Amino acid sequence: MPSEARAGVDISDNSQQAALSEEIRVYTDAATASHAVALAQAGLHCASGSLVADDGTAITITLKAPVDIKSDILKDANLAQAPINSAQVWQASGEGLDILLVLVQLDQSLL
Questions:
Q1: What span, in angstroms and rounded, lies between the C-alpha atoms of 106 and 85?
Q2: Angle at 12 between CA 93 and CA 107, to 5 degrees
Q3: Cα(1)–Cα(49) distance, integer angstroms
Q4: Do residues 74 and 94 lie in contact, with contact meaning Cβ atoms separated by under 8 Å?
Q5: How far, in Å, CA of 87 to CA of 72, rounded?
Q6: What is the pLDDT of residue 35?
Q7: pLDDT in single tens digits along all 111 residues of the chain
Q8: Which residue in 42, 58, 66, 92 is a FRET match for 102, CA 20 to 30 A apart?
C-alpha cells in the first residue's frame, strides 16, 4: 500500500550481532493508515515462515501471536495524550535470531 511519505534507518553492530530497523510511513488519512495496518496484520497471521539471509539461504522462523501494547505505551506521561490508534508487537525467532516486530498507528502515520 503506497504511502505519501516514507523514511527509515537501519543500524547494525556485527560484533554484538544486533540490528535495528526503523521505518515511518505517512498516509493521506487515518482510514488509509488503518487499512495498511490491517494488511500488515493479515500478512503476519501465521505460526511460521521464512526469511532470506544476505547469502540467499532461507531461515525458518516461528512467529507468536501479536500482543496489544497500546495501553502500555499510553502509561508513559509523555505519550498519554498521543493519538495512538493501535500498537502491536510480534515476536519471531529461528536459527539464532530473536526478532521483535512493532507496529504503531499514530493517526495517519505508521511507526
A1: 6
A2: 75
A3: 21
A4: no
A5: 9
A6: 94
A7: 778 888 888 888 888 888 888 899 999 999 999 999 999 999 898 999 988 888 899 999 999 999 999 999 999 999 999 999 999 999 999 988 899 999 999 999 998
A8: 58
